[in-house]
Design goal:
Elements (H helix, E strand, L loop, with lengths): L11 H13 L10 E6 L2 E7 L15 H4 L19 H11 L8 E6 L3 H9 L4 E6 L3 H5 L2 H11 L4 E4 L18
Parallel strand pairs: 3-4, 4-5
Antiparallel strand pairs: 1-2, 1-3
Amino acid sequence: MNTTPPHPRPDKNTYFLLIALAARTRADCLGRRVGAVITREGRVLSTGYNGTPFGMPNCSEGGCHRCSRRDDDRLRGGAYDVCICVHAEQNALLTAARFGQQTLGASLTSTTQPCFGCLKEMLQAGITEVHYLHPWDPAEAYGDQALVAQYAALRARFATFAQVGDPALDTADLFGAFVKR
Ligand SMILES: [Zn+2]
Ligand SMILES: [Zn+2]
């Protein structure tokens, strides 16, 4: 008797990663495009992608002064507090708040390793597990030992903080057939 399933079925972590990747198709930011999904007990609570807040001009239309001046030395790699773009993880948390979904004890999957700011917000919102597709090195990104140590201390607060999936499979045309250019 053949017990092979009729089609391949992703495990739950891969399923959530695929949802985060789908959410990312809606991202509108001149910087890196990111998608995220918050889940609890194996069910989706909310999704998010990065871009400007409701009713504000899109980042790609010049809506974010910081993103549109990435080559300005004063703004490059810093001035995060004046970036009007909301990160994917923040949007997933805020969408959960907007619709009254409890994030305490929930998990988050992002297409990119979460930044310092998103980590502290996820911690404060009660997220316990974090998965991400694309890793990056805080030592390279921050170049400051105290910040690198603080990032490490933040991530250590999560029961799980782990890379998931194969970044090499994330090709430019992942959803190309569905998304008109
Ligand atoms: Zn932006
Ligand atoms: Zn972030």
